[in-house]
Amino acid sequence: EMSNSSSISHFLLLPLADTRQLQLLHFCLFLAISLAALLANGLIISAVACGHLLHSPMFFFLLNLALSDLGSILTTVPKAMHNSLWDTRNISYEGCVAQLFFFMFFATAEFPLLTIMCYDRSVSICKPL
């Protein structure tokens, strides 16, 4: 009796669209939205890093939130754009694990930042110096 010794080396992803025109539309939408987000976060990072008046805790947390947002975007969107443009549907097991790890890392890093930012703003409003 022979045993099954097959192994999975990649996952098959479901496509976002079936026709080529919709795949190109998804690529263009991903490109436009990700470029807008990258530009906005890049402006926040450069403004906080270069502006000496912006070196306060409020803007420090905003800088870290922008960096975390950049990490989330750069983890998932390039592979989705690649799949839409080249009509591929597979991702390696290692690539999937790495993408999931980094996305979860950046997503869970945002929650404490948002909590601290809410507390910082409420203290500055309720008890001004």
From TrEMBL:
Domain of life of the native organism: Eukaryota
Gene Ontology molecular-function annotations: G protein-coupled receptor activity
Gene Ontology biological-process annotations: sensory perception of smell
Membrane-topology descriptor: Multi-pass membrane protein
Keyword Phosphoprotein part of the UniProt annotation: no
Keywords: Cell membrane, G-protein coupled receptor, Membrane, Olfaction, Receptor, Sensory transduction, Transducer, Transmembrane, Transmembrane helix
Family that this chain belongs to: Belongs to the G-protein coupled receptor 1 family.
Name under which the protein is recorded: O14I1 protein
Record gene name: Or14i1_2
